[in-house]
Write a structure and sequence with these properties.
It contains 7 helices and 16 strands. Among the domains are: 212 residues, no CATH class; 61 residues. It is an alpha+beta fold.
Length: 435
């Protein structure tokens, strides 16, 4: 009996077709493989004069050789906010180039699972994200979309040392030896992946809106006029429009990059966008996106809806609102895949991993710093001591006269103030350690 071949052999896509991203979960989509032109082929970076490895030099604004001094400008176009947007279509994704356009390796961390793109000449044994030395180098796969635009580094490595030194010196409740931590003065420059989205949002809302109304009536029992305020509730509706331009969503997974710290580096000046050229990555590290376009757009829409909700509430002339509902219609959606410059340092202190980031365009810095908790508890004790002491002094004075009540009242006031300031200090310290 003949065998049914459809059940004996797995299906395979036609030749020259590749798997592309699908907007429908569980559905695999194949499209014609994009043609690779000569300019798309991987290139290596060697000095034309002496043959040594060359790197992108921030000060020179081009690739430079540290041995013979040769400098070559990057053949890139400054596009700024006029950088091309792309629609959410299968054709756009299938025609996009893949990989970095240059010969690179992947540094895989066995500890946190991150994959970091490094140049072939890079020698490193430490993960940039978790400071682990359990790493190994694997072959770079040309599967991810190639970025179309980036913002080059404008902050030099020398400038990071001064910025980090000033930042480390702030905060008396950090360990004294932290300012002497040499690791933080050795930031590594990395291009991180980002998705940017543009869209028009039309939001319509409906809610019960309350208006305060003041009334006066005569209280016969107390024989006086009394004023009271009541709320008049009315059903109302309205609409608002939002023009969303360059809404940023990180393409890095939160397991590897602290999104809380990363957002403190915003904003980036999108007027600095330039067309992507592999030369910018010469001697620098980079990360391919871990968050797909579909997931990034879902995250962006959720955040944009919250912005629309806030805008609708601003249109309501009172803060008395209940039974609020809103619908948001998105149109003219478009996206870009870009790289943004970040200096990153991961260091260990008391077996805990901390991250510090610095905006490679503006110099803004943010990060985690360990807390010397003995300093915090000592400061809290000092703030609570005056109130406690006055209260203890006032108690025996009550037995000899009324003067003790004054000390007790003052003690209670100081104790409450001490609790308030202690709460503020504690939260500030926790925020400094937050991830």
């Amino acid at each position: 009996m003949p065998t049914n071949q459809s059940h004996s052999q797995p299906w395979s896509p036609p030749e020259q077709f590749v798997l592309v991203e699908s907007s429908v979960p569980g559905v695999m989509v194949y499209a014609p493989q994009p043609e690779t032109t000569k300019s798309d082929r991987a290139k290596s970076f060697a000095c034309p004069n002496c043959g040594a490895n060359i790197t992108y030099d921030v000060s020179a604004g081009g690739v430079a050789c540290e041995y013979c001094g040769h400098i070559a400008p990057v053949k890139s176009v400054h596009v700024g906010r006029n950088a091309e947007d792309f629609e959410f279509t299968l054709e756009t994704l299938s025609q996009s180039n893949r990989g970095w356009g240059t010969q690179r390796q992947i540094l895989h961390c066995d500890s946190c699972g991150s994959d970091l793109s490094i140049s072939e000449s890079t020698l490193t044994t430490t993960c940039l994200f978790c400071a682990s030395n359990k790493v190994n180098v694997i072959t770079s796969l040309e599967e991810t979309l190639r970025p179309r635009f980036l913002i080059p580094f404008t902050v030099t490595r020398d400038q990071t040392q001064k910025i980090a030194s000033q930042w480390l010196g702030k905060g008396w409740y950090h360990p004294d030896e932290l300012a002497r931590n040499a690791i933080l003065r050795k930031f590594v420059g990395i291009y991180l992946p980002f998705w940017t989205f543009d869209t028009q949002v039309d939001a319509r809302w409906r809610a019960q809106v309350g208006y305060e109304k003041t009334e006066r009536h005569y209280n016969a029992r107390e024989k006086r006029w009394v004023t009271r305020t009541r709320i008049d509730w009315r059903w109302e509706n309205g609409k608002t429009h939002l023009n969303i331009d360059d809404f940023l969503v990180s393409g890095s997974h939160q397991r590897h990059i602290s999104q809380l710290i990363l957002k403190r580096l915003y904003p980036y000046d999108m007027n600095g966008l330039k067309t992507y050229q592999p030369d910018y990555l010469a001697g620098w590290q980079a990360q391919a996106y871990e968050v797909t376009l579909t997931d990034a757009w879902a995250s962006a829409k959720k955040a944009i809806r919250e912005k629309a909700k806030t805008a609708c509430h601003r249109d309501i002339p009172t803060h008395h609102v209940r039974n609020f509902s809103m619908s948001a219609d998105f149109r003219d959606e478009s996206w870009r895949y870009i790289l943004l410059p970040v200096y990153l340092a991961a260091y260990k202190y008391d077996n805990q991993v901390y991250q510090v980031m610095l905006n490679g365009q503006t110099g803004a810095i943010a990060g985690q710093k360990p807390i010397a908790w003995w300093k915090i508890w000592l400061a809290i004790a000092a703030m609570l001591a005056p109130g406690t002491l006055l209260g203890l002094i006032g108690l025996p004075l009550l037995l000899v006269g009324g003067v003790g009540i004054i000390a007790i009242v003052l003690g209670i006031i100081l104790f409450v103030l001490g609790i308030i300031f202690s709460f503020i200090l504690y939260n500030k310290a926790r925020e400094s350690e937050a991830k």
